[in-house]
Recover the amino acids of this structure.
């Protein structure tokens, strides 16, 4: 039986991932800062331990006896909150190297690292498709985190997820509420692309990556149909019976990524092939 340590297990990604790992027969240990608040996993028999990604000693203790570490630790502001990414950048630049060294010290030889498809933002001027061989020019802290993993002594996998939506993420709840209020506003003129992934599909891809273990591979995990913000928000407004979305929000660089490698390497395919299927849930 494989014992998998999930750092940041109580986040939305972890709450979708951990039950799937348990259902597939894995032993899971959740490493979180406040295990007394992570009560959702108690019925699953998941062992919860206190650990902080900036505290090497707590990580080493929590990782002892595990076969694989999965790093899901993030501090991304919730949708609608102030866009302060300083802590998230610190988690990537400082926390990831501390975790890597803790894995080495604890004898955990494999690490699956969550990353983001947005590292490819703006790399193709005409909104063309990109894949894992395309440049990574955006979100410098994520690029630094990936570099630390790739240059480490560990056997690793990096999954670059699209923009999460689905239960618990908060994104579509915000979109729907703004659509009903008539305040839904597109980034810029809405022509840039966004590559989405339903959080349940991201969790399923992660389970398959852990079980197949394509060593030292980077994979993009997104749905099949990246969409322009104008189309996405027009659809949300229509299904909520609201006014058409407005232009003029903070512009966002396009990222229009291809999921072919994850499909071919893992045998994975998204249940929610595009945003319309995902928003129907």
């Amino acid at each position: 039986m494989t014992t998998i340590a999930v750092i940041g297990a109580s986040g939305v990604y972890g709450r979708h991932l951990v039950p799937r790992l348990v259902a597939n027969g894995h032993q899971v240990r959740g490493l979180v800062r406040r295990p007394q608040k992570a009560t959702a996993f108690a019925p699953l028999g998941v062992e919860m331990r206190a650990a902080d990604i900036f505290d090497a000693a707590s990580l080493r203790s929590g990782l002892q006896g595990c076969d694989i570490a999965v790093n899901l630790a993030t501090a991304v502001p919730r949708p609608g909150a102030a866009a302060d990414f300083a802590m998230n950048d610190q988690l990537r630049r400082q926390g990831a190297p501390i975790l890597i060294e803790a894995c080495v010290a604890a004898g955990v030889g494999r690490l699956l690292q969550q990353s983001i498809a947005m590292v490819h933002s703006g790399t193709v001027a005409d909104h063309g498709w990109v894949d894992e061989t395309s440049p990574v020019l955006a979100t410098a802290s994520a690029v630094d985190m990936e570099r630390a993993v790739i240059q480490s002594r560990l056997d690793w996998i990096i999954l670059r997820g699209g923009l999460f939506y689905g239960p618990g993420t908060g994104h579509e709840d915000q979109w729907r509420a703004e659509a009903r209020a008539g305040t839904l506003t597109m980034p810029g003129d809405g022509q840039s692309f966004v590559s989405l992934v339903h959080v349940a599909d991201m969790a399923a891809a992660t389970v398959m990556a852990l079980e197949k273990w394509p060593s030292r591979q980077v994979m993009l995990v997104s749905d099949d149909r990246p969409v322009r913000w104008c189309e996405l928000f027009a659809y949300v407004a229509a299904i909520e019976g609201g006014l058409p979305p407005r232009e003029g929000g903070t512009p966002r660089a396009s990222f229009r990524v291809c999921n072919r490698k994850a499909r071919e390497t893992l045998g994975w395919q998204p249940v929610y092939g595009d945003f319309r299927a995902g928003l129907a849930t």
In short: The chain has a mean pLDDT of 92. The first strand starts at residue 3 and ends at 7. The chain has one domain: 3-279. The CA atoms of residues 223 and 273 lie 5 Å apart.
